[in-house]
Amino acid sequence: MEKTLKSYEISFLLKSEVDAAVLVKKLSDLGAEISKEGPIEHINLAYPIKRETSAYFGYMNFNAEPGVVKSINDALELETKILRFLIITPPIEKMVPRRNDYYRQAEQTTEAAKAKVEPLSNAELEEKLEEILK
Description:
By secondary structure, the protein is α+β, with helices and mostly antiparallel strands. Helix content is 37%, strand content 32%. It has two domains: 6-88, Ribosomal protein S6/Translation elongation factor EF1B (Alpha-Beta Plaits), CATH 3.30.70; 99-133. It is built from four helices and five strands, in the order E-H-E-E-E-H-E-H-H. It has helices spanning 20-29, 68-77, 99-116, 122-133; strands at 6-14, 33-37, 41-49, 52-64, 82-88. Strands 1, 2, 3, 4 and 5 form a five-stranded antiparallel beta sheet that branches. The model has no long low-confidence stretch (mean pLDDT 84).
């Protein structure tokens, strides 16, 4: 029977930076193949987690069989060096521009239109006001 691997992403908070090796070992022991490791950064937490006020945040992409993810989740919950973790299936990347890009383009066009408008002189402004008031 052929293995069907699916892509997953795990983001995590660790007590120390060297605890990432524990996470990698757990994943590989349970049959996950790590495809990408992101940088691990020290952050201050907004609220204490297990009495820790700072942690090391990182993420990894891995491939695993869908049935293995439950056992990975259970094994990581028992690990005391991992403060928090979240396993997701990464979204499919589409070639459609993002909404923010659309709004950014719209802002640039309105700024360009504003730049083309020349200010009115006092005489022209008075004429416009008279037209409006009539």
